[in-house]
Amino acid sequence: MNHGTKLRERIAGPGTTPLIGVYDMYSASIAAKHYDGMFVSGFGFAASYYGLPDIGFIAWPDMIAFVQRLRGAFPHHHLLVDIDDGYVDPEVACHVVEALERIGASGVILEDQKRPRRCGHADGKQVLPLEEYLEKLEQVLATRRDLLVVARTDATDEHDILHRAERLAATDADVVLVDGVRSVEWIKRIREVVGGKPLLFNQIAGGKSPRLSLGELSDLGVDVAIYSTPCLFAAHEAMNSALADLKSADGRLPQFDPAAGVGVHASTTLLERNIARERLLPEGAGV
Q1: ∠ Cα 191 193 194 (to 5°)
Q2: Residues 178 and 268 occupy one common structural domain
């Protein structure tokens, strides 16, 4: 069974499917222990790979190379990939979709933002004319074979949000995402205009959308939830704290307790699981 079909079937099942945002191979290795689905977050990848905000700096060959490494290490996980606006041109968007499907991505998210783009939960977003976006979306849909496609709008005007959500739901896209939804009431309104099309909800710490559990999202008719940044923000906080402690201790590492902390053994064991998944080394060998 192809990766797109597997994700499509997972989403069609009961409850809300969670996909965890990962930004490098290490964060993916940890996420893979807890969840069977990953979201390749543009926010996290721009921060990790370039040290830049998610406003359009990502080069598509870099994203493809990252997804290829992910698929090699995690052959059975769902991989939903953020491709922003398809890297501007419809021809490039179609080329990227073909490449991602060839290397084993499960799905992509294609947005209608106008450049310079912004994080979906930031102010100042502008969207492409609807017909221009729909033309690009239709070309992507005609290009994919099995790949799941999420049609995303970043509209902020209330009338435009509902109008675009309805138009996106009328296409052959598999899932609709309205990013930056501000309330439960708006989730209900979007769910109504989308009809029977699967609906995706994006949660990000400090973002514009309400914090909701998977059970609450399921009750609202949300089929997929992406968590863009829990790994990135947790790493930020932990690294900042650890380095502040190291500095205050004049460079002396804290006493290591293997029951409470991560050391070289735990880290090596985690990473060697990735080799085992690729069937190149039995799990645990060399530890």
Answers
A1: 65
A2: no
